[in-house]
Amino acid sequence: MTTSSIRLALTLVASLAITSAVLAAPPTKTGKTDKGNVLTDAKGMSLYTFDKDADGKSACNGPCAANWPALKAEANDAPGDGYTIITRDDGSKQWAHKGKPLYTFAKDTKPGDITGDGFLNGAWHLAMP
User: Fold this and answer.
1) Is the pTM of this model over 0.90?
2) Which residue from 29, 57, 71, 85 has the highest number of Cβ atoms inside 10 Å of its Cβ?
3) Which UniProt keywords apply (predicted)?
4) Minimum mean pLDDT among 14-18, 21-25, 35-39, 60-64: which range?
């Protein structure tokens, strides 16, 4: 291999690494609420965690999932920067932050709503950045 071939190969590898890093944006944003900054989905809706979730597994299925929709991960999404992707009981993918699956709350109607915080005897919490 010539020196120029090696340089070209290294340049391509570096370019791919930079492109991958740029495309791997976090699945959440940060929004302001009456309780301070919280993680939000792309629409600005507050995200929550559930105390009954354990070991990176969601305990919110069936009727629970209708009230607490999972923050869905797409097939081409990649974990990183404290975010992981878990597989739900129905086979769908869900984002987790620091090991805790993330959800929205069906009764929150606009960005900044935090009506799910403390729900179910304090088992639901706002997801903090």
Assistant:
1) no
2) 71
3) Signal
4) 14-18
What is the domain extent for residue 37?
Answer: 26-126
Within a domain: 42: yes
Selected residue with higher pLDDT from 61 and 1: 61
Q: 3-state class of 105 per DSSP?
A: coil
Is residue 90 within 8 Å of residue 61, measured between CB atoms?
Answer: yes
Query: What tens digit of pLDDT does each residue of 26-50 get?
Result: 899 999 999 999 999 999 999 999 9
Find, among 57, 55, 46, 56, the residue nearest to 119 by Cα.
46
What are the two backbone dihedrals, phi and then psi, of residue 20, each rounded to the nearest 5 degrees?
-60, -40
Name the token pair of 96.
């987790």
Residue 15, in any domain of the structure: no
Whole-angstrom distance, CA of residue 100 vs CA of residue 54 = 8
Burial code (b: 16+ CB inside 10 Å, e: under 16) for 8-36 equals eeeeeeeeeeeeeeeeeeebbbebeeeee
In a domain, 9, yes or no: no
